[in-house]
Design goal:
five-stranded mixed beta sheet; binds cytidine-5'-diphosphate; 28% helix; 795 residues; alpha+beta
């Protein structure tokens, strides 16, 4: 026997079909709402119709009169158990059920637990709440205006609406760079509030068993272990008596990271009633109250030298966090990893200031398919780069190339202190330009323009800090951001691998098995992957910020390597040679001096249970905790061409080219799926998606008539390129994260393309989404269209 064929056994590089899809396409997935427990009750939440109001009274009498109602929870009741407020993942507090005031439309005011969801909903309507309306704040400018009402008057020492001010970088060096500049280019933009909008809403089924004192909670969470700790601390229950099970998840995208009031209420209700209690949001509940992203105003400038070199960058961010600062991010960085902006460019000096404010909107700022504000960082970067190239009168592709971090500069320290691991930026750009036919398109564009047609080409290049992160710098509420994996090889050579991550559609059940196949030669089909149950899975910080492959995936590798090291001892014993004389090739150990004499990994597995050498612990299992030495930094180039109709402002996408370098691809087909999904979301952001609030704080966008999801009908085709592969030097298999890259880098490519089509008319910026009326206004009025999108009028 010789080494196994890695692709045939489904190892690294195999485009193995996703094993989880077998059950999904047969309708056999087990989502939260599929869970039915004996004696289960149902919970519905009464939400505030007003964005800002004092609660003068809550009367639940009529709700209790409805047959089938078991319990009505109010803030007052929660307060008696010290649960009216809960801590957030960002050192703030959040109301579980409102007591004093409501602070956003859709805020949780009461919860009814009843025999079925319809009775619970009817009973919610029977609750009488009296409100005294207060003026609403819907933007950072209003939040800091003189005389603005203080939203968080529940907090001692909170005299205004500012949550934090924060800065990073070298101000003096940046000022000096600007003093040297031949030209200063500016950009001011708004990244609108958006929603991850997973198909499955958030929910939980809490099941407290008085006899065993055990609390089991099935929950749509991307981070079950963190939730277990949070429940232990908030509800003051012993952690070992809490089991969080994250079943199949119908999409997460960051929406399922925070702790929501509904989870807490269902848990308390189950403890009080000693029956299982299910809560699942309806679509409006999800779209109005959970996990918003972005909502940020960005303002910055570049110091430029005549020859196109960027000397410095400064930027200010005004982030609207909503009523509670509850998005998760590494505690050292107040505004996530916004300071990853311009990381792929070699800029000597940079300075960033940020201010976070409260508003009368649902909590926002979640990392919607991005590594903590990287989407905003990259969007600003690429819009700024495009504008600066235009200001300098240089080619935007060449401008990027001149300023890229060069191959020989890695590892490269950015002006904000990140250490980029590896990359071939110029090569990716070349592949992209060739694929789109750059020179040819420029000629076509010119000819078209002469005939009054508007063609445009937009480039976006991005890098993303993925795999947060090393314990020196990254923690959430003090908990370091490592992950772990446990691998058990059974006596017949089949195996199970468990990690603390939680797949929500990314395909971990397929790809983690591929890593084991690569490390041990056990065919991927013989490895089952299990995640999401805190009673069985080892600890992990969860799946968000594309951290699974960089951290949990690396832990799988390391656990498999530990198993291999033990299997080597077994092999030496079976082959009757010393360990030093044993060599490894995929799936087999052999004697160095006699390569024909060998044993397979399967034979070693059997020996671990039947024929161990003296002194060797039986079994073939290992657990590895992986504290990543650094982040992984994938790179991508997205190029989009469009045609804009000057008469209507409608723009059609002609071509989209994506060149992604995410290091070694475990499963190329899954990676391509991730990129296509990300580009679809990017297109939606640029073209159609936003949530606005009117002056009273009413949320416009709480249904799919207002908040648009692109279908296959609108979504353009994508041409994907995978020829550039720069392994991460510190990841065990050289892989970098990829799940979010296209959603992060994509929006700027679409926007830059439209701006390229209309830029010669004196238009420098149109803020997202580029709705036809905004584009049309820009073209006809020959001016920028900036700021938060308008509130769509009725009808
Ligand atoms: O954390 P999350 O799973 O969302 O993101 P990711 O680590 O970027 O992985 C997304 C999916 O792509 C997973 O199934 C990965 O195993 C797969 N992947 C891959 O096959 N090769 C890579 N270099 C990166 C991710």
């Amino acid at each position: 026997m010789t080494a196994l064929d890695e692709i045939k056994i489904g190892g690294l590089g195999a485009s193995r079909k996703r094993v989880e899809d077998d059950r999904f396409i047969r309708g056999k997935g087990n989502y939260l709402d599929d869970i039915v427990l004996p004696g289960m009750l149902h919970m519905e939440i009464l939400r505030s119709p007003l964005a800002h109001a004092r609660i003068t009274s809550i009367d639940t009498t009529r709700a209790y009169e409805i047959p089938g109602v078991h319990l009505v929870l109010t803030g007052e009741m929660m307060a008696t158990r010290n649960l009216a407020w809960m801590p957030t993942l960002s050192y703030d507090t959040q109301a579980v059920l409102a007591t004093d005031k409501v602070r956003f439309q859709g805020q949780e005011v009461a919860a009814v637990i009843a025999d079925d969801p319809y009775v619970a909903k009817d009973a919610c309507e029977a609750i009488v709440v009296e409100y005294e309306p207060l003026p609403a704040i819907v933007s950072p400018a209003q939040a800091v205006a003189d005389g603005a009402p203080v939203i968080r008057d529940d907090k001692e020492n909170q005299a205004d609406n500012v949550i934090y001010t924060w800065e990073i970088g070298d101000k003096a060096a940046t000022d000096a760079a600007f003093a040297q500049a031949d030209l200063v280019s500016t950009m001011k933009l708004h990244y609108p509030r958006s929603h991850p909008s997973p198909i499955e809403c958030c929910g939980s089924v809490a099941d407290f068993n008085r006899a065993t004192s055990k609390l089991t909670v099935y929950m749509t969470t991307q981070a079950p272990h963190i939730i277990r700790a949070a429940v232990a601390l908030v509800a003051e229950l012993p952690e070992h008596m809490i089991r969080i099970v994250s079943p199949d998840i119908g999409g997460g995208f960051g929406n399922k990271v925070p702790v929501y009031p509904g989870y807490v209420c269902s848990i308390l209700a189950s403890i009080l009633l000693e029956r299982p209690v299910k809560w699942i949001e309806d679509k409006t509940g999800n779209l109005i109250s959970t996990g918003f992203a972005r909502d940020i105003y960005l303002d910055g400038e570049l110091a430029l030298r005549k020859d196109g070199k960027i000397l410095g960058m400064r930027m200010h961010a005004d982030a609207d966090h909503g009523a509670f600062f509850s998005d998760a991010q590494p505690s050292k960085f107040k505004i996530g990893l916004l300071h990853s902006t311009f990381a792929c460019y070699d800029i000597p000096a940079a300075h960033l200031t940020a201010r976070g404010t409260y508003s009368n909107k649902a909590p926002g700022g979640v990392a919607y398919r991005c590594s903590f504000r990287v989407t905003e960082a990259m969007f600003f970067q690429e819009r700024m780069i495009a504008a600066a190239a235009a200001d300098l009168g240089v080619d935007p592709a060449e401008f990027r190339r001149v300023n890229f971090v060069r191959d020989e500069q890695f590892p490269h320290r950015t002006a904000f202190g990140f250490l980029l691991d590896s990359g071939q930026y110029a090569k990716c750009l070349d592949v992209g330009l060739r694929a789109i036919g750059y020179e040819e398109f420029r000629k076509r564009q010119e000819q078209a323009r002469a005939k009054g047609r508007l063609l445009g080409l937009g480039i976006s290049t991005m890098t993303e800090p993925l795999g947060a992160g090393n314990s020196r710098e990254y923690d959430i509420l003090g908990i370091k951001m490592f992950d772990s994996a446990e691998l058990k090889v059974h006596m017949t050579g089949k195996a199970i691998v468990r990690t603390g991550a939680r797949t929500q559609g990314q395909g971990h059940e397929t790809t983690w098995a591929q890593i084991v196949a690569h490390e041990l030669g056990i065919p991927a089909q013989d490895v089952v992957v299990e995640e999401g149950d805190t009673d069985t899975a080892p600890f992990g910080m969860g799946t968000y910020a594309s951290r699974s492959t960089p951290v949990a995936g690396a832990a799988v590798s390391m656990a498999a390597r530990k198993v291999r090291a033990k299997a080597r001892k077994l092999a030496a014993h079976l082959l009757e040679v010393s360990e030093e004389d044993v060599e490894w090739e995929l799936g087999r150990f052999y004697v160095r001096s006699a390569p024909d004499r060998g044993v397979t990994i399967t034979e070693c597995a059997l020996a671990a249970y039947s024929n161990m050498p003296d002194g060797l612990e039986p079994g073939l299992e290992a657990t590895a905790f992986y504290d990543p030495p650094n982040l992984t930094w994938p790179f991508a180039v997205y190029i989009v061409t469009v045609e804009v109709d000057p008469a209507t402002g409608v723009w059609d996408v002609l071509d989209v080219v994506a060149v992604d370098d995410c290091g070694v691809r475990i499963n190329p087909m899954i990676v391509e799926g991730q990129i296509m999904g990300g580009l679809t979301e990017a297109y939606a952001m640029a073209n159609m998606q936003f949530i606005t609030f009117d002056a009273e704080g009413n949320c416009i966008g709480s249904n799919y008539m207002d908040y648009l999801l692109p279908t296959a009908w609108e979504t353009p085709g994508f041409e994907l390129h995978s020829e550039v592969v720069t392994p991460s030097p510190h990841h065990p298999i050289g892989a970098k994260g990829v799940g979010e890259c296209a959603a992060v880098g994509g929006p700027a490519a679409f926007v830059n393309a439209v701006l390229d089509a209309v830029g010669h008319l004196g238009i420098r910026n149109i803020d997202m989404p580029l709705l036809p009326d905004r584009v049309w206004e820009a073209i006809t009025e020959r001016h920028d269209v900036s700021g938060a999108p308008p509130v769509r009028s009725e009808g």
